[in-house]
Amino acid sequence: MKLMGNRQGFTLIEIMAAISVMAIGVLGVFALSPTIIRGGAANSDRFTASQLALEGLEIVKNIRDSNWLEQNINPANPWNEGLTNCAAGCEADYATMQAFDPVLASYGSGRYLKMNTQGFFNYASGTDTKFKRKITIINGADVMDVSVVVEWSPKYPALVLQEKLYDWR
Hints:
Number of strands: 8
Structural class: alpha+beta
Number of helices: 1
Largest sheet: 3 strands, antiparallel
Distance between the termini: 107 Å
Radius of gyration: 29 Å
């Protein structure tokens, strides 16, 4: 019989080594997948919290701007009307803005924001979310220090947005 001398091909050891390297690579990718998914969810929550904080600040600015417009009719109307009782914290949503003279509700223990069927956050109706928003306003003579804190998970720090609003008129 003729010996198999110069045959081309892979040995069993080479095939086993290649399969092992590929298996380690595939397992590494699968091991990272849960971490990537958790990170994506955390980023989504942080983005939502940042937008809720911006909305809280915009609500305060809208009330201040409405007060300025009312000063054209009644010059005795203060520029910070409805914004003076929030040193301990308030809560508000755009449903609050529907009132003629919006007043921010006391924060108390803090309610969770709800999401209605149109996808808007509010305190009145809808499904509870994991987000709480606290608006704190410290009033000075011609300046308000506004701080909006949004909490959503004990695992992550609360998101804080601060701004000074002035009576520049």
